[in-house]
Amino acid sequence: MTLRPxxxxxxxxxxxxxxxxDDMSDALRxxxxxxxxxxxxxxxxxxxxxQVGIMSRxxxxxxxxxxxxxxxxxxxxxPQIIASSDxxxxxxxxxxxxxxxxxxxxxxxxxxxxxxDLDGNEAEETFTGLWATCVQHEVDHLDGKLFIDHLKPLxxxxxxxxxxxxxxxKARDRA
Length: 175
Ligand SMILES: [Zn+2]
Fold this sequence. Notes:
two-stranded antiparallel sheet
């Protein structure tokens, strides 16, 4: 397993529509292991393939937060949100591609998702709470959308300016 570098906003690859996965392959299984390891290490609760520069519709997540609970690593290829509740909920979201930036985002409180699992089988599940927010955030990534795209333009621009500075400082530190 390999830790993969996570792309930081702004980056054109984070604004790109990702291609469907043809088939669950060993290459994708190995990529999803890398992505899970990268996500746990960060630490984060979700990671989408474009965040590591792979423009495929693949995401991983694990929203188990209590140390007393067993981890639940999930891998989804070609996830589709097939139903969303009218009821909405607000969570303060963050993103591994936007370190230290957080904002309240309102989304459907409950979603049903259909995807292809690691064995190549179709799976379906209804998510609520943090899981529902996380899976919607990650599916957005596959459509080239970030959580800041749900915010008012002024707030989005402010965060983007901070990120441009963050990336500049980081590049300078490395130089
Ligand atoms: Zn994200």
